[in-house]
């Protein structure tokens, strides 16, 4: 007679599966809680304690860790010495293993959970059985994912035959599962132990969705989310309409959201190729959008628009006038959704960006390696600000400087942002020299550069950026400072009547 060992923390869906085993003439063996669930449902089950002739003990820390179990999982059925050992010790074979583990990840989602409570949720016996059974995939069918119960039930109802490739695939899934489970534990304990730059790192991500392709059609790609679903992350967004998100959409939307979280007042961000092309702040979402649009009515074409307030009919009417890839907002009025529905392809995402936290790690893959750093979460405080010129910025200039500083942090380096009246008027992104970025931003601003402010993500290595800014009519500059040639830039700013503020903070973004 075949035997199935069922030991599950999440009991959902387990009764029909156990019934399918019984109907097939397979004996079901279970641990305490699972045994009680199945018995209560009238399914005949043998308790593990009966098989091991040992009671479950130490608050369940020891239940299945026994040769009567592990021998039955690991014995090579085609190796006579293994089978002889099994006979000698009266170890019965186990042919199916259905296990899901203690909910460690769920437990640590609670920020107030005590270490002891989290540690108690580290499953020991479950992974041991899964690994043993998966190692012996030639003889054992191992199911860790409740999504596979259906397949198992169906197969038990027909021929109960599993091809070796199927058992192998299930085994690989088991090792992915236990690896991710252990990665989460290692990450949590490493954090608790206060270890930085550990000798090895394992990050665990779960498939959110396969993507049609990557950055280009010939590149295969998929989107993985951080373990669980982080509030405010794209994985938690609700898509109300439109085509499936693409690889580039996800990157651009992420960039738009990162920038948007800098702002509390109603703000709209338009992003193209990971850079903001227009940002506007206003009293209402519609006003903020109008400013973001006017900032650069050309580049917004085919862009991503993110708004940190509900999108109403007035805003939606402006949005549908354009070709956009994505519109993101915390909510949309039903009228706004009706208006947006006229543009079937535009992806409309509802996402509570207020929940988004600028914390955690920033991972960048390089050939043969991975760079790991903290996210750039350094916010500007009053104490950071130092006016280095004779002229102080006016009140309006201060507002524009702080506005532009929030944005330049999210523009690829070398980055220059020109802003005026709560609106970007020029963005110079990703240039190989700083004055080149300034020239692009100034050219884009045109007449609007007169009276605008300029923000730079890093210091001026020479005064040429001040020179081009002054010629264009820029009135105030914000930059980190720290160049050995700072004084030359300050002198030139004084000569041209420009107010200049140092922040002492660099915001490179490569
Ligand atoms: N200690 C053991 O021997 C052991 N054997 C199985 N478990 C786990 O116990 C859980 C099921 O327990 P129960 O059937 O008592 O509700 C499963 O998540 C399983 O992975 C164990 N628990 C933890 O390590």
Structure report:
It catalyses: (6R)-10-formyltetrahydrofolate + 5-amino-1-(5-phospho-beta-D-ribosyl)imidazole-4-carboxamide = 5-formamido-1-(5-phospho-D-ribosyl)imidazole-4-carboxamide + (6S)-5,6,7,8-tetrahydrofolate; IMP + H2O = 5-formamido-1-(5-phospho-D-ribosyl)imidazole-4-carboxamide. Keywords: Hydrolase, Multifunctional enzyme, Purine biosynthesis, Transferase. It comes from Ferroacidibacillus organovorans. The chain is of the alpha/beta class and 510 residues long. Helix 8 runs antiparallel to helix 10, helix 13 (313-319) runs parallel beside helix 14 and helix 16 packs parallel to helix 17 (464-472). The longest helix has 29 residues, at 164-192. The protein is elongated. It has 3 domains: 3-193, Rossmann fold (3-Layer(aba) Sandwich), CATH 3.40.50; 225-350, 3-Layer(aba) Sandwich (Cytidine Deaminase, domain 2); 382-502, AICAR transformylase, duplication domain (Cytidine Deaminase, domain 2), CATH 3.40.140.20. The protein contains 18 helices and 21 strands. The chain is 36% helix and 20% strand. Strand 2 (27-30), helix 2 and strand 3 form a beta-alpha-beta unit. The protein has a 6-stranded mixed β-sheet. Strands 16-21-20-19-17-18 form a 6-stranded mixed β-sheet, with helices on both faces. The structure holds ligand FAI. The ligand NC(=O)c1ncn([C@@H]2O[C@H](COP(=O)(O)O)[C@@H](O)[C@H]2O)c1NC=O binds next to strand 1, helix 2, strand 4 and helix 8.
């Amino acid at each position: 007679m075949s035997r199935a060992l069922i030991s599950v923390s999440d009991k959902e869906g387990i009764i029909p599966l156990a019934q399918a085993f019984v109907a097939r003439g397979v004996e079901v063996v279970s641990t305490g809680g699972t045994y009680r669930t199945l018995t209560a449902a009238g399914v005949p089950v043998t308790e593990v304690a009966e098989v091991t002739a040992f009671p479950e003990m130490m608050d369940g820390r020891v239940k299945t860790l026994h040769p009567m179990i592990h021998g039955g999982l690991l014995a090579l059925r085609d190796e006579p010495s293994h089978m002889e050992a099994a006979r000698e010790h009266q170890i019965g074979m186990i042919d199916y293993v259905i296990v899901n583990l203690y909910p460690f990840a769920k437990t640590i989602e609670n920020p107030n959970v005590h270490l002891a409570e989290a540690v108690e949720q580290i499953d020991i016996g479950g992974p041991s059985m899964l690994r043993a059974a998966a190692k012996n995939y030639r003889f054992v069918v191992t199911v860790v994912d409740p999504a596979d119960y259906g397949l198992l039930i169906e197969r038990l109802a027909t021929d109960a035959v599993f091809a070796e490739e199927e058992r192998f695939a299930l085994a690989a899934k088991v090792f992915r599962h236990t690896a991710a489970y252990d990665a989460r534990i290692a990450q949590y304990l490493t954090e608790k132990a206060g270890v930085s730059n550990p000798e090895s790192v394992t990050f665990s991500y779960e498939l959110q969705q396969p993507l049609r392709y990557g950055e280009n059609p010939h590149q295969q790609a998929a989107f993985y989310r951080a373990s669980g679903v982080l509030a405010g992350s794209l994985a938690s967004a609700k898509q109300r309409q439109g085509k499936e998100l693409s690889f580039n959409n996800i990157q651009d939307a992420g960039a738009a959201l990162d920038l948007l979280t800098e702002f509390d007042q109603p703000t709209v961000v338009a992003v193209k190729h990971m850079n903001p092309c227009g940002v506007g702040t206003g009293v209402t979402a519609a006003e903020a959008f109008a400013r973001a649009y006017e900032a650069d009515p050309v580049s917004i074409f085919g862009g991503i628009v993110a708004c940190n307030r509900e999108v109403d009919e007035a805003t939606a009417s402006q949005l549908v006038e354009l070709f956009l890839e994505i519109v993101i907002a915390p909510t949309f009025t039903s009228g706004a959704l009706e208006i947006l529905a006229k543009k079937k392809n535009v992806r409309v995402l509802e996402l509570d960006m207020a929940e988004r936290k600028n914390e955690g790690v920033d991972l960048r893959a390089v050939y043969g390696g991975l760079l790991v750093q903290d996210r750039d979460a350094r916010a500007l405080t009053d104490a950071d600000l130092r006016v280095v010129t004779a002229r102080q910025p006016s009140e309006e200039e201060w507002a524009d400087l702080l506005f532009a500083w929030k944005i330049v942090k999210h523009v690829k380096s070398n980055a220059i942002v020109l802003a005026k009246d709560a609106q970007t008027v020029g963005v110079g992104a990703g240039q190989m020299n700083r004055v080149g970025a300034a020239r692009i931003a100034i050219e884009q601003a045109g007449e609007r550069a007169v009276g605008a402010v300029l923000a730079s993500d890093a210091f001026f290595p020479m005064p040429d950026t001040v020179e081009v800014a002054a010629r264009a009519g820029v009135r105030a500059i914000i930059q980190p400072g720290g160049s050995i040639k700072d004084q030359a830039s300050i002198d030139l700013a004084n000569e041209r009547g420009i107010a200049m503020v140092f922040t002492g903070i660099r915001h490179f973004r490569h």
